[in-house]
Inverse folding.
């Protein structure tokens, strides 16, 4: 990977999952940029939203840390939360979820690590994942670091339901596990077996490395080769670097990430916001 | 006086934070507005935290520092939530510590089931049917409030979300008037709904005017009608270090200072007593 970064590769790859006239969002910085890239190049009818989800349908703007300020000025409509969940219930949301755990059957967890009564790590709670499960066609997942704590045999708490008997019992035909990406590769599903499989590996990544960093056993043979994740095109790189993220917010989800970087990106933006005084209603 | 000036109300629901705190009781359920690090009623949460109130049931669909503060000050008997955290800036330190010690009783919801609970509450119905939560561990927790039933119309198994009718809702708005009308300019989250579900709703606002302009606000504004509102408190920086669109973004250095120090009770007490941030 010489001419582009891992982050740019992931943004370009994640952008390919969006389609149609639906809400396109990502809960991580890279996946949210991928929604913008999708709208710019592939899905002009996609509807973007602020991270908090109120200001809806803005034009393309550079990614910021305070999206209400960057997106509201060009928003065409404004959603209340009850209306947003009506849209979700009717399949109008496409989302990349930043899950903490995912297991071999596609169950996902952002609530607790360990037992629920007395967790080893209390995360944030199930949030909207159980709701997306009953609305979205597929749940796509972006995991920043591929390791055995993230790609687990069995999640500690089910926020999003994967393949298996419970899904069959409920006759749940929505919220299917979708594409999963990590810093090592892109993963999909053997639908018959209800098991995660490798789609592509990022340049320089080997199957042995993926297996060593995964708690469950992949249904693949050692020595088996996998296609390489496609490199971003010149056009995609141009959009990411020059138009959608000229300030490099994407570095916050790279190995460059640091408190200092976050603070300097924040300070630059906060100054700009506070300089532009509001107009009273 | 011309006819156009008649018909306005003379109601004056202004009160200070001390009066708001005095209107609360030990054991009350209190729902907070805002989401994560956005438009949290921090001045009100601090006033509650600094009072002698105890055994509170705190309800926050998307809890942030207001929830974390009251947990750290040992005010919370029970927490109902779909999320508690500091958004992109990390986890909530006192929530995390209390949960990992096994000492904080919680009821875990999703966002849509929280909204369903408030919708049922606002209509004074016992429950609202949903599908959200089915197939997940929200159904298996020992405190899960959800039940299922077979739909008499379709035969489908549905999840029932019991109504939430908080004793009190506390919501920060951008601007309010004396009569209790409130305007939210940024993301309203579930706040207008919470105001309708609660038995008593109090607004805080940095600006309280005699009367809001008539004939419609900015088209993006969310309005909370005075009929839902018992009192309005004027605050100075009522949202503390959380964001208030369009006035100020989240104050990251203050957030990071809180995250680093808030599990130190001495620091948290002085933070609670302090006026700003």
């Amino acid at each position: 990977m010489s001419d582009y970064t891992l982050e740019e590769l992931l943004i370009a790859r994640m952008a390919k999952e969006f389609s149609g006239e639906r809400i396109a969002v990502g809960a991580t910085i890279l996946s949210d940029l991928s929604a913008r890239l999708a709208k710019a190049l592939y899905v002009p009818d996609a509807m973007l939203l602020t991270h908090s989800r109120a200001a809806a349908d803005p034009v393309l703007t550079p990614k910021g840390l305070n999206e209400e300020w960057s997106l509201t000025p060009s928003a065409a409509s404004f959603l209340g939360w009850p209306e947003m969940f009506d849209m979700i219930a009717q399949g109008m949301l496409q989302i990349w979820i930043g899950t903490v755990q995912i297991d071999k059957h596609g169950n996902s967890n952002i609530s607790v690590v360990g037992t629920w009564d007395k967790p080893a790590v209390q995360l944030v709670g199930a949030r909207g994942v159980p709701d997306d499960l009953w609305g979205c066609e597929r749940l796509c997942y972006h995991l920043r670091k591929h390791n055995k704590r993230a790609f687990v045999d069995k999640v500690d708490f089910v926020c999003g339901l994967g393949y298996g008997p419970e899904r069959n019992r409920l006759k749940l035909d929505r919220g299917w596990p979708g594409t999963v990406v990590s810093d090592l590769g892109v993963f999909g599903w053997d639908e018959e077996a209800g098991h995660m499989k490798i789609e592509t590996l990022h340049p320089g990544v080997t199957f042995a490395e993926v297996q060593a960093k995964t708690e469950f056993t992949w249904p693949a043979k050692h020595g088996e080769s996998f296609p390489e994740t496609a490199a971003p095109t010149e056009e995609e790189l141009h959009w990411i670097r020059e138009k959608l993220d000229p300030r490099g917010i994407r570095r916050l989800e790279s190995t460059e990430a640091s408190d200092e970087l976050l603070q300097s990106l924040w300070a630059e933006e906060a100054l700009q916001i506070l300089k532009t005084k509001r107009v009273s209603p | 006086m011309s006819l156009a000036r008649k018909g306005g109300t003379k109601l004056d629901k202004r009160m200070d934070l001390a009066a708001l705190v005095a209107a609360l009781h030990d054991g009350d359920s209190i729902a907070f507005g805002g989401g994560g690090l956005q438009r949290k009623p921090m001045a009100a949460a601090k006033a509650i935290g600094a009072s002698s109130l105890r055994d509170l049931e705190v309800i926050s669909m998307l809890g942030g520092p207001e929830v974390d503060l009251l947990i750290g000050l040992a005010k919370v008997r029970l927490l109902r939530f779909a999320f508690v955290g500091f958004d992109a800036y990390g986890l909530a330190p006192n929530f995390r510590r209390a949960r990992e010690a096994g000492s904080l009783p919680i009821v875990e919801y999703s966002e849509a089931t929280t909204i369903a609970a408030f919708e049922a509450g606002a209509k004074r119905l016992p429950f609202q049917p949903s599908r959200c939560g089915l197939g997940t561990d929200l159904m298996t927790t020992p405190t899960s409030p959800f039940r299922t039933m077979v739909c008499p119309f379709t035969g489908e198994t549905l999840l029932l979300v019991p109504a939430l009718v908080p004793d009190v809702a506390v919501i920060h708005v951008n601007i309010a008037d004396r009569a209790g009308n409130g305007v939210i300019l940024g993301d309203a989250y579930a706040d207008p709904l919470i105001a309708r579900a609660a038995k008593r709703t109090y607004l805080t606002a940095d600006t309280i005017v005699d009367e809001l302009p008539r004939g419609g606000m900015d088209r993006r504004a969310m309005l909370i009608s005075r009929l839902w509102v018992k009192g309005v408190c004027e605050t100075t920086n009522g949202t503390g270090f959380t964001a208030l669109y369009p006035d100020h973004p989240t104050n990251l250095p203050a957030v990071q200072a809180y995250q680093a120090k808030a599990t130190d009770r001495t620091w948290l007490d002085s933070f609670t007593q302090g006026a700003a941030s």
Notes: The radius of gyration of chain B is 19 Å. Chain B touches chain A through 66 residues (CB under 8 Å).
